[in-house]
Amino acid sequence: MRIQLDKSKKFIPEDQELIDDFDIIMNKALTISYEQLLKDYLNHPSEQYEIEYPEFRDFRLYLNEKEMNSLRWNKDKMVKAVKDKKKLQ
């Protein structure tokens, strides 16, 4: 990752995709809540999250945020709800 210093003495990232991947990795390191990771993914869907948490993609496709909240952001309950919805389709 390369960062330049511009005339205003601000650091400017040259590759935004690398910066985004770095932010996701740092969020994982700093965040201990599965709920917070999932909320971050819902706000900023990323392939990096889908690689590490493949269930996130299904959660986003089959459940809305209200349903996830009613399931208390519990991974096992949400996986079961997704499986049930897939059976219905």
Shape: elongated
Calculate the mean pLDDT score and round it. 84
The H-and-E topology, N to C, reads as EEHHHHHH
Helix content: 55-70%
Major sheet characteristics: 2 strands, antiparallel
Number of strands: 2
Q: Strand order across the biggest sheet?
A: 1-2
Taking all Cα atoms into account, the compactness measure Rg is 17 Å
Secondary-structure class: mainly alpha
Proportion of strand residues: 5-15%
Low-confidence stretches: none
- How many separate helices? 6
Quote the distance from N terminus to C terminus: 44 Å
Structural write-up:
With 89 residues, the chain is mostly helical. It contains six helices and two strands, in the order ββαααααα. It has a two-stranded antiparallel ribbon. Helix 4 packs across helix 6. The radius of gyration is 17 Å and the shape is elongated.
